[in-house]
What we know:
Low-confidence stretches of chain A: none
Number of strands of chain B: 2
Number of helices of chain A: 13
Order of helices and strands of chain B: EHHHHHHHHHHHHHE
Radius of gyration of chain B: 21 Å
Radius of gyration of chain A: 19 Å
Helix content of chain B: 55-70%
CATH topology of chain A: ABC transporter involved in vitamin B12 uptake, BtuC
Distance between the termini of chain A: 61 Å
Oligomer: heterodimer
Distance between the termini of chain B: 14 Å
Order of helices and strands of chain A: HHHHEHEHHHHHHHH
Structural class of chain B: mainly alpha
Shape of chain B: globular
Largest interface: A-B, 56 and 49 residues
CATH class of chain A: Mainly Alpha
Strand order of the largest sheet of chain B: 1-2
Mean pLDDT of chain B: 91
Amino acid sequence: MIESLIPVLAGAIAAATPLIFAGLGELVAERTGVINLGVEGMMLTGAIAGFALAAETGYGAAAGLPAGALAGAATALIFAFFALSLAANQAACGLALTIFGIGLSAFIGQHYVSYSLPGLQPLVIPLLSDIPLLGPILFKQDAVVYLSFITFAVVAWTLARTRLGLLLKAVGESPESAHAIGYPVLGIRYGAVAFGGAMAGIAGAYLSTVYTPLWVQNMSAGRGWIAVALVVFATWKPLRLLLGAYLFGAVTILQFHAQGLGIDVPVQFLAALPYAATIVVLVVISRDRRLLQLNLPASLGKPFLP
Amino acid sequence: MHLLEPRAQPSQLMRWTAPLIAIVATLLAGSFLFWALDKSPLASFEVFFIQPLTSSYGWSELLIKACPLILIAQGLAIGFKARIYNIGAEGQLIIGALFGGGVAIHFDGSDSAWVIPAMVVAGALGGALWGALPALLKTRFNAEETLTTLMLTYVATFILSYMVNGPWRDPDGMNFPQSIMFGDNALFGILLEGSRVNTSIFITLFAVLAFWLFNARSFLSYQLEVGGQAPAASRYAGFSAKQTVWFSLVISGLTAGLAGVGEVAGPVGQLNLNISPGYGFAAIIVAYLGRLHALGIVLAGALMALIYLGGEAAQVSLQMPAAITGIFQGMLLFFLLGADAFIDNRLRKPL
């Protein structure tokens, strides 16, 4: 029984990987007080940029991931100009970015509709992959999955233990104080938003060059929005985000294993499960107002004009 | 990086010119885009914005596309005034279409004149229900309506997909995911011979009048606006925040549901996976571009309909993907928000 669950759990880890990248990026941006609802748009822009470069250069994901990161960061800067420099409504700017990104990616993607890419072979890590149970689940994955482990560790450590992390959090908690001490609040927020965009772009490029290595219009299918919801679910804490992402990874791939597990439900209901689950976790976490208030970055969503 | 400083008084002039500035900026950015794609900007704009309006058929198509956009945006504007951000009108439209379409399928072959009215009521109910769900989650569990309304849109598309692949699939439809074509008495009557313009425009017309009166005359509208602008003052005055949430989401769901019926009992004529080309999302832009004002929304809806028509024309004449519509929509919203920043702020004077 346990043996038969290994491929399911390994699949969940891979399915969670784009959520981890996009979620961590959004988490960092929100810790500095900026809520960017454009994750879906940045992800799709990253997906098509990554796919295009991977296909054109022939280097696959090795070219696709950096291209996705750059494209994601570039679109994030459009958002930043309007939401930060012009202090426009952040939620609406994020929505504009999503609409723009969906359109732009579909527009560029028109040329790549029938292409497919080779994808990535799993990279089996010696010794670690021999650990019973955990080994085959965690350490027989593709290289990008390992990159998500490293990214998580770096983000969690930076936020918790470094001066930069302290600065990011200070800007999110009290931009006025950070400004008064002489820190460039907008500069730091620009940086955090660009980082969020790069992470969303990597998430998208992972989808289009590794996870399902072909281009499909709107292929992120709401994962960007789920990543935004995960940040709330995680109450802005990286470790909880990681666990939440794996939970959603498991829910997402349930539809592919349902028949094998003897679950006989129409495929559309299983496909709708991640979105329904998002609503459920939002409800569960939001009903505890105190918990939410305690962790919410105090300036989240509020424009800063010194 | 700090470009702005607050104005002493919000600029009323900017409030009403911001949409025009946004449109001009979108056209400029669009010219750049066409130029970058090696197309002549002027010729492209001709195809995009002029050519669709050179025939009476084009004008009738404009009307067909503008009606659902205006209808949905009227409902959304109520919520936006109260800062209730329903961004899931697309899902409410789909559920409205499903409810209305269900009536049509159930009464297929009946020659009763009540089928269409029943579909309209069912669609309004369905949309309102799909709006009530996030209202319940917000008032009872404090869950953000932005994310819940959006997630429910995805859920709605899967319900639609299940229904047209399963119980309601046309048995003679060669396994395509679509229902039967609705009979004549389950379709709105054609108003203009030779066009697709139908009697559902009276629903939009009625909605515009109703919302105009509501905004101009009712105390409830005033309560909503105060609740959005000054929540503390609103609480002090005894206005209920929960009531605002319920009202905003149910009304905007209802109008979106009506728009859904208008599509399936109008130009689409059946249930399938392409009921709406993103009207629910585009209507958000329409509401803001129309300054959340009932008549402003009419103008904004017409412009947005033209962008849709232009996208279709560009697909045919310029061999461009129809996705260019989305690019224009995104740019328009960005520039509108940017221009809106100058209502409360002005450019900083150089030190």
